[in-house]
Here is the input.
Amino acid sequence: MNKNIETFIGCDAEYEDASLVLFGAPFDSTTSYRPGARFGSSAIRHESYGLETYSPYQDEDLEDYSIFDSGDLELCFGSSKAALSDIEARASEILSDGKLPLLLGGEHLVTLGAVRAALQKYPDLHIVHFDAHTDLRDDYLGATLSHACVIRRCHDLIGDGKIHQFCIRSGEREEFRFAKEHTDLHKFNFEGLEESLHAIGDAPVYFTIDLDCLDPSAFPGTGTPEAGGVSFLELLSAIELVAKSNVVAMDLNELSPMLDASGASTALACKVTRELMLSVLKNKK
Here is the structure.
């Protein structure tokens, strides 16, 4: 892999030296409301230069770690199956080389490709899922590979009791009924997160963050905004908790930069990306 021409700030190490590898999946072909998430990963990378590498929240600096940014994959917009296969291949390569993958979406369906790769290496994988939406539909308008179905497809792979969902405040009645029997779902906020992480213990964790878990007053630049979400500081505190667990792969998705002309949503996504990387890396020292 070669470094991307434009990297996330502070993420310009050589691949061989890197402990964490960033890659983008610019895909939004199953978006059901407002498209634009395909531009999220490149916007985060480009606008990251409005940040410093240093985090005053954590007293940590990206320059003290070796992080490689491989840029965006070139994905087939006409085939979810093909796009997921390419995402899985890239995540598998990173994992097989003993590195930590961070996938930047893109719509939330991209998570499925990276989860498939992580599950190959870690059969006892758990998923910690931050989102406004359950994403537990069996199909959406007949499509089983949809951003509305991504966590259901993950459940098909890893089974009951291994998916832990937080901030959920939207979904069909049947999705909530399914969750009661098959997932560890927590509505509206992060209440119960510490208890769930304690139950997970040392098991490997795939950490997926749909940024619409945030309240749209803080993060309007997303395809399916849902009122009633958490604040940036609440999200940051929750990320720091999850980072203390055995995170083996992670993603951040659903920024649609053009839906917030102020640029504030992209700036927030950049900061979450920085804090997420630093939180996980400092706990792996």
